[in-house]
Amino acid sequence: MNLLLVYANPYTMLWPQPAGLSMVARAAREAGHRVRLVDLMFEADPDATLARALEETRPELVGFTLRNLDNADMKAARSFVPDYVRWVRMASQVAPTLIGGPAVSSAPEPLLRATGATYAMTGQGETSFPVFLRELEAGASTFSAAGLIWREGETLRRNPPDLSGHARGIDWSFIDLAKYKRPYMAHGLVTKTGCAHRCAFCDAPWTAGTTFLTREPEAIVEDLRRDARDYQLNTSEYMLIDTCFNQPLGWAKQVCEAIIRSGLKVGWAAVVEPTPDLDRELCRLMVRAGNTIVTTLVASYDDDVLAQSARPFTAADVAHAFELFEAEEVLYMPQLMFGGPGETRASVETTLRYARRCKPIMIQGGWGVRVYPQAPLRERAVADGQVPAESDLLAPAFYLAPGLDREWLDARSRSVGVSKLAAAPRWARYLWRLARLRW
Ligand code: B12
Ligand code: SF4
């Protein structure tokens, strides 16, 4: 079939490349289909770019990656759904349409209805997309492809998604890398998917898998070798595509050891959560294997707030992790998220007091928690009267603990920060880690 695949991400913040779409594109090409990938990320007039691609390609199917429902920012919420609706409708005038990607896994039926797409696919696409294409070509009206949602009369039919993990990484041949050469641009490196935790505000276990689905360390190193050889990606930083790199602990160590053994000079950032098993050995291995910086969604330093969001660590674990980072020269960037269930003025102050004591390279503070349709927080948000029970949650919807004043919270969260002078040696170390990649 003649396929047009569209990376429909209009949000340039941190510019993630069309990682998942490249994997789906590779699978379709290997199954014998003609594939063109169009990336709307940096387009000044994405509507015109899409119209041109539709005209030039004359596709038999148009597939879309819909990544984020919105920017997840309560203070300045920006929904991307209106763009998705417009683009899918444009394409639907030319050919049947299929939507996939993280936003679709989060809110499949609402997005299918809103965009009017012919089909939606939840979960991973690299195995199920070619199955769907085979069935479509054969004229099927009912499908076995994993994760597929289709219409039969007035009803929507839905197959369970493929959440088995990624055997292979990104296919850069589909991505115009020149467009992504920007300051602080990090290339994606797929290390694992899924998550064994159940944080109340997160839908990853339901949309990406309920266990850690790790890739083989040697397969990850093989990607790094190929990326260096064919695309020279070793000269800038990677961002691991991994919700919590440090777990399972033994696997994370094996990945670091495999990178060290390979002799490759690479730099990578990762999400590392302060779970109780985090140890000194992993911190040391990470630095030796080229870790440049870690981010950690600490959210709060109050045990009750952490417990009410079912975070997999306590305030003491956070303190322990940060001590290790500081001792082992792991540069870290905590993210605080004020206003979750159980938050009070007192708990906000507890977190701020702790934040002033630690020594990160940078610290981010935000408030309000996005409520996703399948996340456990939804029930609490409905019970607390913050979200109507019948809402499909496509439009940005947030939880803010009852009784907290927004203006006060905004002012307090903006008081979070690290003095430039104190952070200067850490920034120097970070920039040195990036600079050495170029020599
Ligand atoms: C890594 C990551 C990041 C990294 C990206 C680094 C990089 N260089 O790529 C960073 C830190 C930059 C980031 C930023 C943000 N992120 Co983020 N991120 C992720 C994470 C963990 C993995 C995404 C990923 O690349 N997956 C790997 C690829 C291989 O999988 P994939 O894209 O899902 O593609 C597969 C399927 O979806 C499917 N598929 C995809 N497209 C298509 C198309 C078709 C036609 C088909 C059939 C199938 C299909 O098949 C693919 C292969 O299996 C997810 C959580 C998760 N578990 O998915 C959140 C996630 C996508 N991020 C999220 C958010 C909110 C954001 C931010 C808005 C946060 C913020 N407030 O700033 C920004 C947005 C950035 C932007 N400009 O878009 C949310 C989106 C929620 C939603 N449903 O709307 C997620 C789901 C996390 C969550 N549960 O809250 N993120
Ligand atoms: S927030 Fe992170 S640790 Fe918690 S369930 Fe989501 S991916 Fe897992």
Describe this structure in words.
With 439 residues, this protein is an alpha/beta fold. It folds into 2 domains: 2-158, Cobalamin-binding domain (Rossmann fold, 3-Layer(aba) Sandwich); 186-438, Alpha-Beta Horseshoe (pyruvate-formate lyase- activating enzyme), CATH 3.80.30.20. It is 38% helix and 17% strand. It has 16 helices and 17 strands. It has helices spanning 19-30, 46-57, 81-92, 102-106, 108-115, 128-137, 204-208, 217-231, 249-262, 280-288, 303-308, 315-328, 345-357, 377-383, 406-414, 420-435; strands at residues 2-7, 34-39, 61-65, 97-100, 119-121, 148-152, 155-158, 187-190, 192-193, 213-214, 237-241, 267-271, 291-299, 332-338, 364-367, 369-370, 398-399. The strands form 4 sheets. It has a 7-stranded mixed β-sheet, with helices on both faces. Helix 8 (217-231) runs parallel beside helix 9 (249-262) and helix 9 (249-262) packs parallel to helix 10. The longest helix has 16 residues, at 420-435. Cobalamin (B12) binds next to helix 1, strand 3, strand 4, helix 4 and strand 8. The site of cobalamin (B12) has 43 residues, from helix 1, strand 3, strand 4, helix 4 and strand 8.
